Amino acid sequence: MTTDAISRPGSLLSGKPLRVLAALILIVNGLFPALWILITSFKTEAELTLKPITWLPRAPTLQNYMQAFSDQPLLTFLFNSFMVALLSTASTLLVSVLAAYALARLNLRFRGLIMSLIIAVSTFPLVTLLVPLFETMRALDLLNTWTALIMPYTVLSLPVCILVLTSFFESIPRDLENAAMIDGCTRLGALFRVVVPLSAPGVFTAGILAFVNSWDEFLLALSFNSNPALRTLPVGIQLYQGEFAFPWPVISAALVVGIVPIAALIVIFQGRVVSGLTAGGVKG
After folding, report:
1. Whole-number pLDDT of residue 271
2. What is the C-alpha to C-alpha distance for residues 170 and 202, in angstroms, rounded to an integer?
3. Rounded CA separation 16/99 (Å)
4. Residues 6+ apart with CB under 8 A from 180
5. Distance between CA atoms of 147 and 149, rounded to whole angstroms?
6. What is the 8-class DSSP label of residue 54?
7. What is the per-residue pLDDT for 144?
8. I want to staple 64 with a disulfide (CB 3.0 to 4.6 A). Which of 21, 183, 249, 263 is the partner?
């Protein structure tokens, strides 16, 4: 090790080999499982049990996808998941925009305490909230409804969305809002006509985070909805397994169908999400 390397402690951590290794770890951990699910969805049940393992399907088939739609009402699961995720995202953004604006602009006496509580609430394990949430929904007679999922999904997504948006709102010059209010806008009008459009990357980032959280959630969807017509995709996929059999190719096909909308969403808004995450980490 050279004297120059010793004098610069960060030089080893910023070296190219370490960056390549980190990239490989991310690829193996994130990309390989999704790629393996995609490959499995084109295999037959017999080929899946072959030894040694075949990495690529010898005779690719679309039968698994057709069976995924015929064995279970997959379109219904997709529709329910989309509507629940969309409505919970809309309500999350509305509440988080108002809350983040209040934290960023109003001279709140206990602002630091409020921010600490928001962070603390976001660390609660979901399983610890299951029983009180279930009792609340049962008392409100909301079980087996979309509302039983939309309300908790909104609350669970609020902490991270508020933190992201607060950082963005703090970076917007107050003079722009003051100019809008001089021209006749109310404070609420200045928020939605000036601040929110200028914070578009942060709003997109918060919205996608909330949408993905709602789309992927399983525990509450399983506990709050027993009506087959209202099952969401994560709950519906488990129905493909039998009592003594696990049709992995069909399950993989259903998983691919469920991954595609999220992947498309990320690809379409990739630029805004990346700029939102990076800017949100340094502003404020």
Report:
1. 64
2. 12
3. 42
4. 189, 190, 193, 194
5. 5
6. P
7. 93
8. 249
pLDDT digits (tens, 9 = 90+) for 175-210: 888 888 888 888 888 888 888 888 888 898 899 989
Contacts with 160 (C-beta within 8 Å, 6 or more apart), sequence order: 122, 206, 209
Please say if the pLDDT value at position 234 is more than 80.
Answer: yes
Q: Find the helix packing angle between 200-216 and 270-282, rounded to 10°.
A: 110
Please write the tens of the pLDDT for every residue from 59-80. Answer: 888 999 999 999 899 999 999 9
Cis check: omega of the bond before 159, within 30 degrees of 0:
no
Take residue 113 and report the two structure tokens written for it: 């305490």
Residue 42 token pair: 């084109």
pLDDT for the residue numbered 214? 93
Whole-angstrom Cα distance, residue 27 to residue 173?
Answer: 40
